[in-house]
Amino acid sequence: MGANAAPLEKLIEEFSKLPGIGRKGASRLAYQVLAMDKAEALEFAQAITDAHTKIHRCSVCQNFTDGQVCPICAGEKRDKSTICVVESPRDVSAFERTREYKGVYHVLHGLISPMNGVGAEQLTVKELIARLAGDEVKEVIMATNPTVEGEATAMYLAKLIKPLGVKVSRLAYGLPVGGSLEYADPTTLGRSLLSRGEL
After folding, report:
1. Model-level pTM?
2. Mean pLDDT (whole number) for 19-37
């Protein structure tokens, strides 16, 4: 156990379970929690408890929400004919920050990855297909990451969706703003060439 008191050691251990947090970072966070006054510490603990007990998946898009339906799905000004399919709730936040997208989302909560034992049945695929039952949805945008798993998931979903008469598109992965062509990887360069638009 070392020099730390048992409750402190337990706190360090819990913080170190978080992805990207090593022993050193976990130790720093634990000491910061100890430095809080009692009210702050209880508020912090309550925030964790509330996040776990009050947040669940939206019955429509599967994004995290504290209501039955999330504010995006409930929004009357959102274009319900376009669904943007993403891997995680974090991706929804990224798109919303751009303020460019006016449609709705569908969160898969993962990607198909046979290596990690993740199949389509562990994702929210059937919920997505159920949303395409009517004729309201005209386009589904595959916005999974440009990784092997992301591409495989996009291709798998496209095969399921196309026969339903719904247009399936893929995000265009271009060059970063301020980037230099000579340093771009061949896949990105090829993609940006294929997805070129008219000027």
Report:
1. 0.80
2. 94
Q: If you classify domain 6-54 with CATH, what class do you get?
A: mainly alpha
Class of domain 64-180+186-192: alpha beta
Nearest to 11, CA basis, from 95, 171, 23, 52: 23
Which has the closest alpha carbon to 95: 104, 125, 32, 78?
104
Q: pLDDT of 72-113, one tens digit each?
A: 999 999 999 999 999 999 999 988 988 888 999 999 999 998
Q: pLDDT-based confidence at 175, cuts 50/70/90? A: low
Provide the pLDDT confidence category of residue 71 given band limits of 50, 70 and 90.
Answer: very high
CATH 1.10.8.420 domain extents, the chain: 6-54
